[in-house]
Structures are given as structure tokens and as C-alpha cells.
């Protein structure tokens, strides 16, 4: 029932939801992966889509223009951790990995990718010694992301202290190699410029010719996607911004039209949307 849907707190958000429900076949539902479809865990390699996520996505996907998972992870990794491959009903799902540099679609089951930035390989080789010299090696670890490299401080003795201490030096290292530094929830990612979720989302929405867009995210890396939806709204495409609640990232909650309490609530929202669209 439509009444089971949570209510956006802003007029723009209510307009976005109304547009989605009125013409779901023109809607793009876009979602971050970690922290939105999957719980944040100490070891990112153990992240998996929340129970019920695939079922909710498969119920909603046939009723909308597309569902897009927009993530900094490699597309293939997100597909594997999400359990998206070979699921009936998910033919309208794509994964925009590495902020859009890679793309997997459920119809073909293949990944298309642009050439990698050479600075990533240079940073990857330099990072272990760099962190060792910085005296921040204990508990800090490097995640290989193919087209980017991430430094995690969540398992450090002082996670926030390590995060703040490394932010400046890693920013300089990124700049030296022609990359940019993207801070997140106890993670600092070094990646090529021009790669962000806002660019990926905007290009995909325009490609699909969407009449409305919903975007849900949880971290600082989702702010460009929020900005993209705000720009789309100003250009006449209604949109709904959803924050997958986190006390660590108040900036996102402040700009959202709707805040929900993490991945379990995102799954509930997707299921409610599927029901509401089906009954409309």
C-alpha cells in the first residue's frame, strides 16, 4: 500500500516520490552499495547485500526504467557481493562500478570498462612504504580497488586520529600522481579525477531518458550524486534523495529528503515502492 511508504520531509522530495509513483516506467532508482544495500563491516571483503535486498530489487526492477547500483567498488565485485547475477526480475539492473568507469548489466552479464589511470599503479606501489614512514601502519590497511586504492583506518588504535593524520599527506600523494583524494567513513580513497557518483548518475539518467530519479546513499562519496539529483531537479526532472542513516555523515542526512535507518530500512523502502507501484 502507498501508505506504507515513508513520507519525504521536503516538498522536492514529495514531488520526486509522486513522479516516480505516477510514471514508474520512466524512473531510475539508483543506490550506493556499502552502507546502503550492505552493512558497513570492518573488512570490506566480507560485505554482502542485506538479506531481502535482492528480493526487493527483483520485485521493483521490472516496474521501473532501471535500477542502478552506483559504487566505488569494481563492478564485478559489487555484482558478486550483491548476489545480482542470474536473478529473475533483475533484467533492468545495472552496476556502475568505479564511479561509472566500469559497467555491468544484467542482460548481458558482462563488464565494460575504460582504460585505467596510470597514477593508480604508481600510488599502489608507493603506499606501503609511505604509510610506514608516516608511522601510521598499525591497524591501517590498504584495499586494492583496481582503478583506485583505499586506505582504511577503522581498525586502527585511534581510527579518527589516524584518519585526520593521513588526510593531508595522502592528499598530497594523490595530487603528485594526478589523482584525487576522496574521504569517507574511516576510509581515504585515491582515485582518478572526473570519477564520481554524480557524473556517473547524471550520464546514466540522461542515457535512459529518465522522468524521475531516486538516489540513496550513506557516505561523503554520495554527496556528488546528491548534487546531481539537485541539478536534475532544477532542470525539471523530479528526484528523491534518501540517506541510509549514519551518525558518521550528518552532511548527507541534512541534504536528504528522506532519512532511513540503514540498509534494512532501505530494503523496506524498496519493497514498499514495489508494492505501491504495483497497486497504483
Quaternary: single chain
Distance between the termini: 9 Å
Shape: globular
Percentage beta strand: 15-25%
C-alpha Rg (nearest Å) = 18 Å
Would you tell me the overall average pLDDT? Answer: 92
Question: Which blocks of ≥5 consecutive residues have pLDDT under 50?
Answer: none
**Number of separate strands:** 12
Q: What's the arrangement of strands in the largest beta sheet?
A: 5-4-3-2-1-10-11-12
Which structural class do you get from the secondary structure elements?
alpha/beta
N to C succession of SSEs = HEHEHEEEHEEHEEHEHEHEH
Largest sheet: 8 strands, mixed
SS element count, helices: 9
Helix fraction by DSSP (H/I, runs of at least 4): 25-40%
Tell me what the structure shows.
The mean pLDDT is 92. The chain has helices spanning 11-22, 53-60, 75-82, 118-133, 159-176, 197-208, 223-234, 250-255, 263-279, and strands at 27-31, 66-70, 93-97, 102-105, 110-113, 141-144, 149-152, 180-183, 187-191, 212-217, 239-244, 258-260. The protein is 39% helix and 20% strand. The protein has 280 residues and is an alpha/beta fold. Helix 3 links the parallel strand 2 and strand 3 (93-97). The longest helix has 18 residues, at 159-176. The chain is globular, with a radius of gyration of 18 Å.
What is the topological layout?
Elements: H1 11-22, E1 27-31, H2 53-60, E2 66-70, H3 75-82, E3 93-97, E4 102-105, E5 110-113, H4 118-133, E6 141-144, E7 149-152, H5 159-176, E8 180-183, E9 187-191, H6 197-208, E10 212-217, H7 223-234, E11 239-244, H8 250-255, E12 258-260, H9 263-279
Parallel strand pairs: 1-2, 1-10, 2-3, 10-11, 11-12
Antiparallel strand pairs: 3-4, 4-5, 6-7, 7-9, 8-9
